[in-house]
Amino acid sequence: MSTIQVPAQFSAGISLAQPVKVYRLNSAVKISGLIGILMSLFFAALVLVVIRPLLLNGWGPFASLADPSISGILSIVTLIIPVLLLFPAFIQLIKVASQWNKAIVLYQNGLAFRNRRGLQEWRWEDIRFVQAQIVRYSYYGVPTGTRQTYMFSNHKGEHLVLDQTISQAEELADRIHQVTTPILLSLAAEAYQAGQPVSFGPITVGKQGVTCRGKTYSWDEVQSLSVKDGRVQIEKRGGGFFSGGTSVLASEVYNLTVLLGLLQQIGGNVSFQGGTSLASAAAVSENISD
Prior knowledge:
Elements: E1 19-24, H1 27-56, H2 68-99, E2 103-107, E3 110-115, E4 118-123, E5 127-139, E6 142-154, E7 159-162, H3 169-193, E8 198-199, E9 203-206, E10 209-212, E11 215-218, E12 222-228, E13 231-236, E14 246-249, H4 256-266, H5 278-282, E15 283-288
Parallel strand pairs: 5-15
Antiparallel strand pairs: 1-2, 2-3, 3-4, 5-6, 6-7, 8-9, 9-10, 10-11, 12-13, 13-14
Helix pairs in contact: 1-2, 3-4
């Protein structure tokens, strides 16, 4: 019997074999949400309990505001301001409450999570598309942080987005990616061998060659396909800036590592530079040096 303790909402009715790991809402997200609520409540109370009486009673420097001609307007305004402060606090409270028990459970045969449509079960073979947007920030060459967003789509066109709001999102995305890549690569290779074009978003691979944003390059024309600095670059034979090649952001490409794997299987005049892992291939670096 598994020793993994899954949340109550996942304890029954899951047909994905044994649970492997539970990924929950990042604690920092919970804390920041609560701090935002408390700050809004604090300032609303400050205006209502402290500032409003001082203004209406004409205390000290506010003596001129006690004039009956403006006290009525002031009374209304000092009631509206706390309401305006409480409204975002209410919205934030609903958001925090709805996400408080947010979790994604990894199973042997897939994953499960809850959204507005209820409990969702995705088997590994249900996943069709994987995208990653990874930006690594640095200040004068010193790393300062990374923003990561991963999106997975299933055969029904439904989406699952992972970002920093989920604890260990990178690990979870990597696990999903490792399991699904062989499945997707097998499907892509089968389609290619059958003469069907295989779409990876802005890039399509077929027997005739590689198509990028509507322009097709025959296999005889392609010198290399490389991944570097967050871009997928197609270079034509002859090289040079005016060689007629093209590039596209790696974050726009579906199943990037499947594309690389398929081209590796095809072989021939296609070469690779850069990493083939999801994180290394899709990462873009932004250096602040001004």
